Amino acid sequence: MSDTTATTPSEGTTTTPTGRFCWHELLTSDPEAAAAFYGEVIGWGMGEWSESETPYHLWMNEGVPIGGMMELPEHLTSAGVPPHWLLYVSTPDADACAAKAESLGGSVLEMVDVDQVGRMAVLKDPLDAVFIAYQPSDVTPGHDEPAQLGEFSWRELATTDWEAAWAFYSELFGWQEADRMDMGEAGIYQMFHGGAHPLGGLYNRPPEMPVSAWLSYVRVPDAFAAAKKATELGGKVLNGPMEVPGGEFIAVCMDAQGAAFAVHSKPEDMARD
């Protein structure tokens, strides 16, 4: 770790965008088992970040790192925090983003610097969902085009007041409203985008969901096959597989260590019998 702020992107690289979902990190109780699980369910390979003081693994999709994994830190385990996925959202200035989050009712849990990686603000929104605002030291990971197979394709916030949450995130990252869907008794599902393509949605969580949290979706060839494989490997299917508007299919799952994730397949991806 370093006490210095991250350097700005080097000359010739793209300026860090505001509001890109650029990294997805799994904090788990068993990295070795999780690597095998997601390798089978999603098809990811593994890499290692050799500069880290503690073991840090990279999720590799077609040779490209799209996220990371580390063992759940002891201070979180002792506080009762279960394995989970954590979202990183890009910002050109992590300190300014953290200050703005506080002014909007959020809180700063920690500011972290990692050599050769960047500066990170671990934030909690006003309704208690945790995420990271990430100022990369060089090129921002990810892209702004539609997700390809093996990439994260959708993010979904379950919260206690979606309108208040939307006011917070839209102001913090400049996201814009997309379609709004009335789910009947389940309430409103508000979708949003940050440019040409939809990024995700948010809604009021049901009473049985104990905490507000972000859920990440991965595009796979077949949501049915991925859900089946997840259960075979000791995970669970929490919802689905089911069809959603547009003829696409999703399944919300939990891995064998208890971290929630979801899979998503498009009609052109499906290879069902």
Overview of this protein structure:
The structure is a single chain. It contains five helices and 16 strands. The strands form two sheets. The chain has an eight-stranded mixed β-sheet with strand order 2-3-4-1-5-8-7-6, covered by helices on one side. An eight-stranded mixed β-sheet has the order 10-11-12-9-13-16-15-14, with helices on one face. The protein is globular, with a radius of gyration of 18 Å. It is α+β, with helices and mostly antiparallel strands and 273 residues long. It has helices at 31-41, 74-78, 94-103, 162-173, 223-232, and strands spanning 21-28, 45-48, 57-61, 64-71, 84-90, 107-114, 118-124, 130-136, 152-159, 176-182, 188-193, 198-204, 213-219, 236-244, 248-254, 260-265. The N and C termini lie far apart (51 Å).
